[in-house]
Amino acid sequence: MYEAYWKEIGEKCDVSITIPINQSMSYFANSKSFCWFLEPKLEEQIKRVHTIVGNAVVEDRYIIVGTGSSQLILAAMYALSDRLNHPNPIDVVAATPAYSSYSEMVTFLQSGLLKWSGDARRYDKDGPYIEMITSPNNPDGTIREPVVSNHKGKGMTVHDLAYYWPQYTSITSPADQEIMLFTLSKCSGHAGSRIGWALVKDETTAKKMMNFLVLSSIGVSKESQLRAAKVLETINLSCQSDKPFEVENFFEYSYGVLAQRWNSLRDVIAKNKVFSAPKYPIHYCNFFKKFTHPCPAFVWLKCKNGVDCANLLREYKILARSGARFGSEAEYVRASMLGLDEEFDLFLERLSAIDLLDG
Amino acid sequence: MYEAYWKEIGEKCDVSITIPINQSMSYFANSKSFCWFLEPKLEEQIKRVHTIVGNAVVEDRYIIVGTGSSQLILAAMYALSDRLNHPNPIDVVAATPAYSSYSEMVTFLQSGLLKWSGDARRYDKDGPYIEMITSPNNPDGTIREPVVSNHKGKGMTVHDLAYYWPQYTSITSPADQEIMLFTLSKCSGHAGSRIGWALVKDETTAKKMMNFLVLSSIGVSKESQLRAAKVLETINLSCQSDKPFEVENFFEYSYGVLAQRWNSLRDVIAKNKVFSAPKYPIHYCNFFKKFTHPCPAFVWLKCKNGVDCANLLREYKILARSGARFGSEAEYVRASMLGLDEEFDLFLERLSAIDLLDG
User: Fold this and answer.
1) Gap between the Cα atoms of A312 and A174, Å rounded
2) Which residue from A201, A215, B58, B90 puts its CA 20 to 30 A from B302's CA?
3) CA triplet B125, B128, B131: central angle to 5 degrees?
């Protein structure tokens, strides 16, 4: 979806990056900085985009760049559990339906530091725990708060704010949490760059996250960081009232496309009466200075009458991830709203053709 | 050390890379490939450089790109241990002195899959184990073979061949091991790109390594891969007899600089009589078609009379990593031979000034 925007920008003005063969050869980007592998240009544009959008507090925060937010999710879990020095693995929970990778990330290395404990709403143990909070949520687009009551102060939270951008949801206030994770892939669409960043309040936690990143990959690609800086710089310039080049505000463009897609999707759903999709309350968006309709990056489709939704869709050549993968029921699926225009049109066309009598 | 070469090349011809803002936005580089996030251009140049240099067999190997070889070291350990499905953690060993990160990588996540078991030469248990083999070795530059006898076929090996390039050692035959790891940082000097690659024989192991890379970072920076492809392409072209541009053979240049530095270093050591450095047997190098003197990337300095070498050097403002960090004695240090010219000259100047009577 984003490719069309970037293609047009690329044709209008020179926003490509050129990297000489002898540039950025060192492990270090800024040896004096806390995150010594973070390119100063990227740090600057990260701060600027959050200030312009108003979606996160950046002052007095440790900014740590990662190879995608995936690496930072693991780094954050590691940092929080390791610093406790607890004899048993720390429980990690997330309210269902939850991003399916959290449980896999916690379990695949069989780490003695972490234990996947499933749905946060059912968590009732007395020990320390980490609650993963994705807001807006993947897969269902809801705005999330911690759901485990922070009993005796033993709860720790990681806020995965990958989708807290104005095209997906109303920006109601700057997020101000202990650990906040963002990723270029969901902000601008540049998934191939594998650039994520963490905003961290506590120094010890930030240091342990750095330790994780150094041991697991000795930092993050400089080339990707330089391009991410250029992408964010272009987004930031596109939001200015006096622009150096004629370009549509990136977030207005993206919100426009998504809002239209959601309208078309809701029309199809209303017509074929086989599915339902969540409805979201509207809120005032401080960035757009108006009320906006949330337009999640995924639709969390529910099939009526308990039909296995992924199976039904597969018959119509629609690939979607079953609700079961997110700890939910098989009558749900997650389908992407972010594909290319052709892909999305085909998705709607095939969805329109579904009649439950056939299914 | 390599920067001077790349700077000169960059001035002579256009070997920079330009990445349009809408390029390589997807997670995928080649959805039909086993390693679906590996850029085809990089794969091609990796195969070509190994064929030209003759340091590794690439035919019928799974090629997996990683965020530096660090990520691949962990991925390989994970893959080998996970596939065993053994009730206890698998012992990981390396002959002392060994790269200090191996033990940290094994222990920091407290993985139930792996257990650091120290010096491979002292390993005498009966269970399955993984032996890490770095050849030429970091820190001491020796050529390494497995040292644990492969009792009852329970031994698995990971060959870290980061330094198996003609500037560092004679290329005596193409390596043909189960898992071989390489990294751009040691081949060309581009450490900031965080590009490593694995050549893997076994499909199950390769699949598990892929699983590790997908869960830990959903692949590897496309920008870095594209630049790595350009760097390797330039190296490959520099090795041809008919070159498209006038440029010194990269490996001849690098070997020339390193050989000169080693000569100067040995002169200093011979004069001040405080230190000794390992002597290496000469071998016929199939790449250079002549006998070459090994020129490791590090010097493994030994201080005479049991003096703490890192402490002594610190008094003379020389930073070097103590042998203790590598599982060895404090009379040893590892010092880099790869710094900028000015840094290396200063290192020699300060080293010359050391008199043990002062120390």
Assistant:
1) 41
2) A215
3) 85
3-state secondary structure of A259: helix
Average pLDDT, stretch A149-171? 91
A336 touches chain B (CB under 8 A): no
CA distance linking residue A272 with residue A356, whole number of Å: 8
Asked whether the predicted pLDDT for residue A359 surpasses 50, the reply is: no
Listed residue (B189, B206, B190, B187) closest to B198, CA to CA: B206
- Checking if the pLDDT of B140 tops 90, the result is yes
Interchain contact, B216 vs A2, CB within 8 Å: no
Gap between the Cα atoms of B356 and B162, Å rounded:
35
Query: Can you give the pLDDT at residue A151?
Result: 65
Closest to B54 (Cα-Cα) out of B138, B166, B168: B166
Per DSSP, what are the bridge partners of residue B183?
Answer: B196
- Joined together, the tokens standing for residue A215 give 């041991």
Q: How far is B184 from A226, CA to CA, in rounded Å?
A: 19
> B85, A228, B188: which is closest to B197 by C-alpha?
B188
Tell me the DSSP string of A64-83. EEEEHHHHHHHHHHHHHHHH
Kindly state whether A92 is in contact with chain B, defined as any CB-CB distance less than 8 angstroms. no
A92 DSSP assignment? E
Residue A45 has what DSSP assignment? H
* Assigned token pair, A275: 């599915």
Residue B185: list chain A partners with CB under 8 A.
Answer: 27
**Three-state SS for B166?**
coil
Give contacts of B 281-320 with A, CB under 8 A: none
Q: Is B16 in contact with A20 (Cβ distance < 8 A)?
A: yes
For the cut 70, the answer to whether the pLDDT of residue B36 exceeds it is yes
CA distances to A45, B50, B52, B80 from B329, in Å: 47, 36, 39, 31
Q: What is the mean pLDDT of residues A284-312?
A: 96
Q: Is the pLDDT of residue B231 over 60?
A: yes
Determine if residue A183 is left, alpha or beta; phi over 0 gives left, psi from -120 to 50 gives alpha, anything else beta.
beta
- Asked if B92 and B132 count as a contact pair (C-beta separation under 8 A), the reply is yes
| pLDDT at residue B242, as a whole number | 87
Checking if the pLDDT of A19 tops 50, the result is yes
pTM of the model: 0.96
At B286-302, the pLDDT tens digits run: 999 999 999 999 999 99
Which two tokens mark B60?
């019928």
Model confidence at A357, in pLDDT bands (50, 70, 90)? low
Calpha distance A328→A344 (Å, rounded): 25
Give the per-residue pLDDT at B55: 98
User: What percent of chain A clears pLDDT 70, i.e. is strictly above it?
Assistant: 98
Which is nearest to A263 in space by CA: A300, A293, A283? A293
The mean pLDDT value for B26-37 works out to 95
Q: What is the predicted pLDDT for the residue at A53?
A: 98
In order, the DSSP letters of B75-98 are HHHHHHHHHHT-SSPEEEEEPSS-
ipTM value:
0.96
Query: Distance (Å, rounded) from C-alpha A179 to C-alpha A251?
Result: 24
Cβ atoms of B255 and B226 within 8 Å: the answer is: no
Residue A110 contacts B where some CB pair is shorter than 8 Å = yes
What is the residue whose two structure tokens read 């992408």? Answer: A231
